[in-house]
TrEMBL record, chain A:
Component of the dolichol-phosphate mannose (DPM) synthase complex. The keyword Endoplasmic reticulum applies. The chain crosses the membrane at residues 38-58, 64-86. This is Dolichol-phosphate mannosyltransferase subunit 3. Stabilizer subunit of the dolichol-phosphate mannose (DPM) synthase complex; tethers catalytic subunit to the ER. It is found in: Endoplasmic reticulum membrane. Keywords: Endoplasmic reticulum, Membrane, Transmembrane, Transmembrane helix. Pathway: Protein modification; protein glycosylation. PANTHER family: DOLICHOL-PHOSPHATE MANNOSYLTRANSFERASE SUBUNIT 3. Its main location: endoplasmic reticulum. Pfam families: DPM3. Belongs to the DPM3 family.
Automatic annotation (TrEMBL), chain B:
Its main location: endoplasmic reticulum. It catalyses: a di-trans,poly-cis-dolichyl phosphate + GDP-alpha-D-mannose = a di-trans,poly-cis-dolichyl beta-D-mannosyl phosphate + GDP. It comes from Camelina sativa. The keyword Glycosyltransferase applies. This is Dolichol-phosphate mannosyltransferase subunit 1. The gene is LOC104740755. The keyword Magnesium does not apply. The lineage of its organism: Eukaryota, Viridiplantae, Streptophyta, Embryophyta, Tracheophyta. SUPFAM superfamilies: Nucleotide-diphospho-sugar transferases (SSF53448). Keywords: Endoplasmic reticulum, Glycosyltransferase, Transferase. Residues 16-184 form the Glycosyltransferase 2-like domain.
Amino acid sequence: MELWKRFDLVMFTGTYNTAILKSYISFVSRTMKHVVKILSLLVAVSAFWIALLQAAIIPRSHTWLLPIYFVVSLGCYGLLMVGIGLMQFPTCPREAVLLQHDITEAKDFLSANGVDVRSD
Amino acid sequence: MADEKENIGDKKYKYSIIIPTYNERLNIAIIVYLIFKHLRDVDFEIIVVDDGSPDGTQDIVKQLQQLYGEDRILLRARAKKLGLGTAYIHGLKYATGDFVVIMDADLSHHPKYLPSFIKKQLETDASIVTGTRYVKDGGVHGWNLMRKLTSRGANVLAQTLLWPGVSDLTGSFRLYKKLVLEDVISSCVSKGYVFQMEMIVRASRKGYQIEEVPITFVDRVFGTSKLGGSEIVEYLKGLVYLLLTT
């Protein structure tokens, strides 16, 4: 029973601190460089991770590996987004045809009105 | 409530369209024709910034001026190839519109989307309306798998690092409020497509409202210009630069 209570507390404190930090960040975001924002986020996440280490709810060996899991999942997420984006990449073959029509129409009009349309 | 059937060109506003050119003697004529075709009821001017094209682009522009009027087409040339960012700054000096549109001269940006840019801006009073190729109604034609992969990878990386708030960072088909463009361009120092990224990221950081419209992009020069290793390195350097300075 005690274990569950303490886990609750850590999750709550961690989320609460992150929320506070995020509102602080958005409040000063106009003057802050973007890299500072990212670093602040990393600091918040690290604080949460250290809190987890100290509370020792999850076995320490697992907690030490959390950053690695995080980086690997970030990498996998990135690759997934690239793959999905590639599959869903919008193409427009019709547009090339329409463009050719437009070019012909333009050339006809222009040459009839004194504009040179040779592409030397 | 705005009447959707109203003509999309609000006659109070004037639009300056800046087109940097280099060796685009045929494309510039076609683009001008298409702009006049799609912006019939809109008050606009086209500013052609030519960097001393050896193929006679400027002569064609002069012929276009005879046809459409020198008040509608401004030729503001420069002596030699000096880069895109400075071309915009140069053209901006002569712009008399309330809004400035920037677009490429190689027909990858089709003027038929100009009304949708204008409409979006009028609906939302956005400071910047940018065209995005990477949404459902947009698209790209003329890229092979490798190019799409690079584009998508670059996009995911930039989104993760920069949180830019737009889906197409390197696009250069945009409508700006004139004052906003003047403000943003003065603080940008990059070159090439990193310059386009820098503009939109800086604008986003400054809090300007940015809206997007889908556009289609027909790349007809892909075969001739390769995306080599040096471009990728430039891009990564640009990302890090933007990460640290915006």
